[in-house]
Amino acid sequence: MRAQFVLSEIGVGLRRNLTMTFAVIVSVALSLALFGGALLMQEQVKTMKDYWYDKVNVSIFLCNKTDASTSPKCSKGAVTTQQREQIQADLKKMDIVENVIHEKAEEAFAHYKEQYGDTAIASVITPDQMQESLRVKLKDPEKYKVVATAFAGRDGVESVQDQRSILETLFNMMRSVNYAAVALMLLMLVIALMLIINTVRVSAFSRRRETGIMRLVGASSFYIQMPFIMEAAFSGLIGGAFACVLLVAGRYFLVDHGLNLAEQMPLVNFIGWDVVLAQLPLVIVIGLLMPSVAAFIALRKYLKV
């Protein structure tokens, strides 16, 4: 097969269907950008989970004098020193517990004043109204229910709370955004495939005389189909390259500059450039293969050779 002939045929096909080729490039770029964005969103959720789940604690709030009159779980009165020490001892015996920190009511009050000192309610809160607690660091944060089952309802315990629940709302929202991006990506992918197939059909129809002559002189089916497949692959490659540009620009302007989310949201552990760059080869490969396969399937049906 002469490469010069194939390249010339590719140029002819692209010039004849310039508008449709542009539409294919745009649709492929958008669908692959959404595909890459969905992959990056999944990595972001995973990174944040690994980062925050390693830092959150299980908090066992102990009864104080105020709880004794307001909470049914503290009907037996405030926690005693013996009860607290027994709870601490039982926690340290558990294999899933890494360490236990006792936060006194005075310490809880000081932390509350640091966080909410400017609010109206902070001015009427007193140290004796704050609950002392045990901050439990687990080796495996997923084993929260083991601690909750063992200590909820014990004398002196008002409640057992898993700080992961605070983060679940954020993670669920991010997963919902990711699902929406995947759905939109699939829609754009279908549109791109339809455009590719239609472009190949138009190109094959416009060159039916040339392909007929090539068949008469004994050209193989693969030889005749190759220029059409290469046209689709070339369009997909350009679309994939644009998708990579969109992904890199999105990371650059959203996180590092422009909106500068990395500085405005210091508590969020954003994925690094290594994760973004690792997805680009996959986007390029899909951008190259997807139109090629679609063109090959279309040619088997519409190009009679």
UniProtKB/TrEMBL annotation:
Keyword terms: Cell cycle, Cell division, Cell membrane, Membrane, Transmembrane, Transmembrane helix
Ranges of residues in domain ABC3 transporter permease C-terminal: 183-304
Biological process according to GO: cell division
GO cellular component, one term: plasma membrane
Membrane topology qualifier: Multi-pass membrane protein
Record localization: Cell membrane
The keyword Cell division belongs to this UniProt entry's keyword annotation: yes
Residue ranges annotated for the FtsX extracellular domain, each copy included: 56-160
Signal sequence range: none
Transmembrane segments: 20-41, 179-200, 237-255, 275-299
Pfam families, per the entry: FtsX, FtsX_ECD
Function: Part of the ABC transporter FtsEX involved in cellular division.
Quaternary structure, from the entry: Forms a membrane-associated complex with FtsE.
Family as reported in the entry's similarity comment: Belongs to the ABC-4 integral membrane protein family. FtsX subfamily.
NCBIfam families for the chain: FtsX_actino
Name under which the protein is recorded: Cell division protein FtsX
